């Protein structure tokens, strides 16, 4: 294992991402390899508000929130990998391609998001990522997505 890999707990994540409950969808990010790759962890619980309506009696994590969790993992990876902690970082989706949903994600699951940078460089504004979300090693969703990095100026 690479000793240079970094991680981000929930406190670090909140210093990087502007998201807050109920839309903060990653609990920790581990195995951060610069801005090349990382692995996010989301503990899925019944207390999440989307389960009230998606679907009553059969709670299933919405696919769009799984993709958002992958994107938030990528955002944390960039924040740590490019030293952008405490910078009022905003990252905007530009597109989502090759998105497929393969397995239901339900309360009690531990969702693992592996993301890797396909294009983008330090100091750049546009990045493309590949993400795979899985539960117990079984793919739940996968997608390629592009995002624009914006640091808010006062």
Determine the structural class based on helices, strands and strand pairing: alpha+beta
What's the CATH topology name? Thiol Ester Dehydrase, Chain A
Number of strands: 7
**In one word, what is the shape?**
globular
Number of DSSP helices? 2
CATH class: Alpha Beta
The main pleated sheet reads as: 7 strands, antiparallel
Could you characterize what this model shows?
This protein is an alpha+beta fold and 154 residues long. The protein has a single domain, classed as Thiol Ester Dehydrase, Chain A (Roll), CATH 3.10.129.10. The chain is built from 2 helices and 7 strands; from the N terminus they run E-H-E-E-H-E-E-E-E. The protein has helices at residues 10-16, 63-81; strands spanning 6-8, 28-33, 37-43, 89-101, 110-119, 126-135, 138-151. A 7-stranded antiparallel beta sheet has the order 1-2-3-5-6-7-4. Strand 5 and strand 6 form a beta hairpin. The mean pLDDT is 95.
Present the secondary structure layout.
Blueprint: E1 6-8, H1 10-16, E2 28-33, E3 37-43, H2 63-81, E4 89-101, E5 110-119, E6 126-135, E7 138-151
Antiparallel strand pairs: 1-2, 2-3, 3-5, 4-7, 5-6, 6-7
What would you say about this model in short?
This protein is of the alpha+beta class and 154 residues long. Helices cover 17% and strands 41% of the residues. A seven-stranded antiparallel beta sheet has the order 1-2-3-5-6-7-4.
What are its keywords?
154 residues; alpha+beta; Thiol Ester Dehydrase, Chain A; 7-stranded antiparallel sheet; 2 helices; 17% helix; 41% strand; globular
């Amino acid at each position: 294992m690479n000793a240079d890999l970094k991680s981000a707990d929930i406190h670090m994540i909140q210093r990087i991402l502007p998201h807050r409950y109920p839309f903060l969808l990653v609990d920790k990010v581990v195995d951060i390899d610069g801005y090349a790759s990382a692995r996010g962890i989301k503990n899925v619980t019944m207390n999440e508000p989307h389960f009230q309506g998606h679907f009553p009696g059969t709670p299933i994590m919405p696919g769009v929130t799984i993709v958002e969790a992958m994107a938030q993992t990528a955002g944390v990876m960039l924040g740590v990998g490019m030293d952008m902690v405490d910078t009022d970082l905003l990252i905007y989706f530009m597109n989502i391609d090759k998105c497929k949903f393969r397995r239901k994600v339900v309360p009690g699951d531990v969702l693992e998001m592996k993301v890797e940078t396909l294009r983008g460089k330090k100091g750049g504004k546009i990045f493309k990522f590949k993400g795979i979300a899985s539960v117990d090693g079984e793919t739940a969703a996968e997608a390629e997505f592009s995002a624009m990095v914006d640091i808010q100026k006062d």
